[in-house]
Specification:
five-stranded parallel beta sheet; 3 domains; Rossmann fold; 6% strand; alpha/beta; 19 helices; 462 residues
Length: 462
């Protein structure tokens, strides 16, 4: 038997598949986010309890937001995966995973949909019905009631009183769903997950508004995920009264969690750890990743690549090669994240990043930092992108993950290495053109000292 319990030897094909998965899908070795998971589960339990008591729970919507690579999609996918396994096994795994609960407590189910699905409320209602009972859902397929509208009303996509003129026969809404499935037919609450909610359009919002306000009283809890500006998008679409405790901004993982993910990976693929310090390897990858989920995934992919080359023997893996591969994955992700508008304002952006302290800035302060450093009518790179105000540029930086709301609603740089990357790109571009002048002097005074303070060298994972 090999070290690590690998009776059949290392799973090289599994390692290859892990490498191919990329860094934007579910986290196969998910760790952390326990507080967010417990909150979602509690919201579902409360909604179900209220429904069974004959009431309705408004405001149960949960929002998971954060910069690209913070693990929002991974969190949704993980919860959905756990719920699916529980339904198949009909076990208490959900309770084990989320929290201790009474044996008779209803187990939540999960339906993961796209933002585009919100444009077709009838289809969404039908999908929910099919999730509850495919046979009973056939009745909704046959519904053609001329007294049903497709906009949210007091009964939630239900009775609007009188006939509705439509180009096509309207389908059943949430009110009809509730009539078809009384409380006794709901095995548990439904967690309706919607990713990329920052792309929500105004015409798609009524569905979420109806569920958020529980107009039909159903035990359906919307769990939304999006970039760090997702809450602002929801507010513009009329969904502004979110429970403060139900808005979760994801950041770095807690200390020790990335190392645990690495240990799980080594065990899952039966890596031969004889002669190697597996614990130290886990600590190294946690350090390289800066505890950022996307970086961790890429560091683990790099390790998997080298393990394949080493036939699954950890002692034969070159740490320098793992570090270099992880760094290349990261730089590729950063280059893809840097939008054309960020490149257009390359020097201004570097100065702005240097001007945001670790403690962060309030929005008005951040707008002032941008406005004071932008040279109106200046050469390309020094001024704001064409057609953008300082506030617009700030919103764009939040959207791209360069800035994010932290404590006390102060804007911070959530990923230290991305901040460094943006400053280095400005310094590199300045060196290429050899520009001289007052803006160049200000750039050198502001940006270069910040880079000098980062003592890990260019493009350091730290």
């Amino acid at each position: 038997m090999k070290a690590g319990g690998a009776e059949r030897g290392p799973d090289l094909e599994g390692l290859r598949a892990f490498v191919r998965e990329g860094d934007r899908n579910r986290a196969r070795f998910f760790v952390g986010r326990e507080a967010q998971i417990r909150d979602i589960e509690q919201a579902c339990a409360d909604a179900m309890a209220e429904y069974r008591a004959g009431g309705k729970l408004a405001g149960a919507t949960r929002l998971i937001q954060g910069a690209p690579g913070a693990g929002k999609t991974a969190l949704l996918s993980h919860i959905a995966g756990v719920a699916e396994r529980v339904e198949k096994q009909r076990s208490g795994a959900w309770r084990w995973f989320l929290r201790q609960a009474d044996e008779k407590e209803s187990q939540p189910s999960v339906l993961l949909v796209d933002v585009s699905d919100l444009s077709h409320p009838a289809r969404l209602v039908l999908r929910i019905a099919e999730r509850l009972d495919p046979k009973k859902a056939r009745k909704l397929r046959q519904t053609r009631s001329h007294s049903i509208g497709v906009q949210a009303g007091t009964d939630g996509f239900g009775a609007s009183g009188g006939e509705t003129v439509a180009t096509a026969p309207p389908y059943a809404g949430f009110a009809e769903l509730g009539a078809l499935f009384p409380p006794k037919d709901w095995p548990g609450p439904l967690c309706l997950m919607v990713d990329e909610v920052q792309t929500l359009q105004a015409e798609q919002a009524p569905v979420l508004q109806s569920l958020h306000l529980a107009t039909a009283g159903l035990p359906v809890v919307p769990v939304l995920a999006g970039l760090a500006n997702a809450r602002d998008v929801l507010a513009r679409c009329g969904i502004s009264r979110l429970n403060e405790d139900g808005v979760h901004t994801l950041g770095r993982l807690e200390a020790g969690e990335p190392a645990e993910a690495v240990r799980r990976m080594l065990d899952a693929y039966r890596v031969d750890i004889a002669g190697a310090d597996a614990g130290r390897w886990a600590e190294r990858l946690e350090e390289h990743s800066d505890r950022w989920p996307q970086h961790l995934q890429n560091a683990m992919r790099s390790l998997a690549e080298e393990l394949v080359e080493a036939e699954g023997v950890l002692a034969a893996v070159d740490e320098a090669a793992v570090s270099a591969g992880s760094l290349e994955h990261r730089m590729r992700a950063y280059r893809a994240r840097r939008s054309p508008r960020m490149q257009e304002a390359v020097f201004l952006l570097a100065r702005v990043m240097a001007g945001v302290p670790e403690s962060g800035l309030r929005r008005n302060e951040a707008v002032a930092v941008i406005g004071n450093r932008a040279r109106q009518g200046g050469d390309c790179g020094w001024d704001l992108p064409q057609g953008m105000s300082a506030g617009d540029f700030l919103d764009h930086l939040v959207h791209r993950g360069a800035l994010q709301s932290g404590e006390d609603d102060r804007l911070i740089c959530p990923i230290p290495s991305f901040r460094r990357f943006l400053m280095e790109e400005g310094a590199r571009a300045l060196a290429d053109i050899g520009s001289d002048g007052p803006d160049t002097g200000a750039f050198i005074d502001e940006v270069m000292p910040e880079l000098d303070l980062l003592d890990s060298g260019p493009h350091s994972p730290q």
